[in-house]
Structure formats: structure tokens, C-alpha cells
Amino acid sequence: MKGSQARISFGMIVLNGLPFLCCNLRSLYPFAHEIIVVEGACRASAEVCSPTGHSNDGTLEELRRFKAEEDPDNKLVIVTAEDEGMPDGFWNEKNEMSQAYAKRITGDYLWQIDVDEFYLKNNMQDVVGILADGDVTAISFPFYNFWGGAGYILDGYADLREDRWVNRVFKWSSGSRYVSHRPPTVQNAAGIDMSSVNLLNSREMGRRGIFMYHYDMILPVQAHRKSRYYAKADWHQLDGNRVRDWYRNIFENLEDPYHIYSIYTHFSWLRRFNKEHPEAVRHMLDEIKRGQFPGITLRNNDDIELLLDDWHYRWGCFWRLWLVVLPQTWLWSFKMRLRSSLIRIGLWDAVQVLRKTA
To answer: Domain coordinates of the chain in residue numbers?
Structure first.
């Protein structure tokens, strides 16, 4: 493969992916060997899906339309729980969904992508060039985490922390195995974690000017659905009622501007974003403004503008960053390195069993 273009298999899991879905597929298509999309709900998402475990916003139907009308090279592969032998349509967890696309990969690299994650076109071309050498075994991206609208990004503990661990691209070969969704982890046939061999980490990608654009919480309908899912998910130790109330208290009303993120236990705040957005996202936002997606609207951000113009708020962000957030971030980085080491030597599952029985 060295010196030739790598075959990139994009892997996506999705529930209620509109309005992002088709804009994202179109942006990936020119770079894809294949795009494998696993659609459907985990059981924790039962409140925001159909009774049969599928999207209730037309995502599955839109996938099938795209396959029929916009897939001339037969790159799109659609997978549902029924395809994996689960007649009720529900997946048990996101690990299972990710493993469903992993078992169908035929390319040289897996590029994991969420439906609301985008990249500038020139950045994707840069990554294709990097992968053509065949030496890199994994790539981790720095990212911009958008909140409330395309003009604002989150800052604080969660974003500084995750900035170092957003593994998205993995070398893939016969016998490769998708091990974990949190954090994304791929091992080769010998059980070696691909991110432990020749990783281009997020700091290096940031130096090269290559970023992931994560439009995580820019739409009211999107934030509402995510808060209902997070309230039921069992992979965190947060109070489900507080997570559910986050949508009304924070996303709608900004009652606590220093705990913006849905993981309410850590400081987080907003700052403006004035850089270029991917073309696909600009097109999607224009379509929303024109009413192309019934029931989907943009947030009124007058309150955010007032907040960011207030020097008291800026000063509050500054001291929280230096006195609280950075020390927390350094500790978290140590814990994640330890976790990666335990996964690599095969002890992570045993540690999880001990934690549950303690």
C-alpha cells in the first residue's frame, strides 16, 4: 500500500441523524472506499426512537434513499440490528454497533465518524496523503466542540481532556478487532492496540492544522434527544434527573454558564468561534434556515452574545481554567494512559469486573 492511496472504510453509528446525515455522507463520499452505517437505538435510547428500535426522524428511510439515488459507486453499506439477528430492532450498546461495522470492513483503514462530526475538505485530503505512506497505525484528532450554534465552542475540563484522546483512524488488516467504543480502541490480530504503535496524536495533528469539527449540541432537537439518552445510559455515574434537566436549565436558559456541558460535574464554558466551517455544514445550516427540515430550528443565541460580552464571565472562565480545570486535566490524562495500558495487556476486563463487585 505504501505510496498508493489507502482504502478508507468509514464507520458510523447513528440514531436520529437528521439533518446531518446526508450532508456528512456527501462530504465523505469522494474519500471513501466504503461507508458502513449502523442505524438504530441502544436500549438506553428507547425514549427517543421508534417502538422497533429505529430512528423516529426518518434516518433509516433517508439512508435507503441515499443508497438508491446518490450512491453510484455502491459505497454505502446499511446495517440494522435485524441484520445481526436481533428481531426487536434494538442494540444492546454502542460497542455492539461499532463491532457490526467493523466486521464488514474491507479497506486498509477504519475512520470512525459520528454523524455530527465533519472535517474541512483540505484536511481530509491531508489525512489521505498521510495514510498513503502506510506507516501510521492510528490518528487522534483535536476538535472543536460546538454548542448552541456554529459560532460558539465549548471550553473547559471535558474538552481539554478529550482533545488528547479522540482516536478516530485505525490501520485495519485481517484479524483486526474493534475492542472498545469508549475510548475507541482497535487491536490487530496479535492483540496489539493500534494507538500504541505509530499514533499521530491530536497535538501533532493540531500542529498540522487538522481538526475535527464536532457539531455536538448546536440544535435544540439534537440537544433534547441527547439529554434523554444520557439520562438513561449506564456507562456514566451521573444523576439521570440532572442530565435530563440539563436541557431546560442550561441549553434553553443558561442558568449556570460555568457548567455548560451535559457532564455537569466539571467546569465548562463558551467562547466564540470565528474560523471557517466545512462546506457541508454551511450548506446544512442554510437548508435549516430555509425550512428544508420541518421541526428543526436553530437556537436563538441572544443570551450567549450577552454572556460573552460580559467581562465578569470572561474573568470567571480564566480563574477556573488555571485553578481547577488544568490540574484535573493532568490527572485524567494519567488515568487514560493507565487504562490504555490495561487494555493493551488484556487486564481491562478483569478490572471492570472487580469494580462492579467491589
So the answer is: 1-317
Tens-place pLDDT, residues 93-108: 899 999 999 999 999 9
Distances in Å between the Cα of 255 and the Cα atoms of 81, 178, 246 are 39, 40, 9
| pLDDT value at residue 163 | 46
Reading the block at residue 12, the C-alpha cell is: 458510523
Q: 141 is written with which cell numbers?
A: 484528532
CA angle 91, 96, 97 (to 5 degrees): 75
Whether omega for the bond prior to residue 30 falls within 30 degrees of 0, making it cis, is: no
Peptide bond into 183 cis (omega under 30): yes
Q: Which segments of 233-347 does DSSP mark as H helices, in order?
A: 240-246, 279-289, 302-308, 311-320, 326-344
pTM: 0.89
- Grid coordinates in use for 5? 492511496
* pLDDT digits 0-9 by tens, 223-252: 999 888 887 776 666 677 777 888 999 999
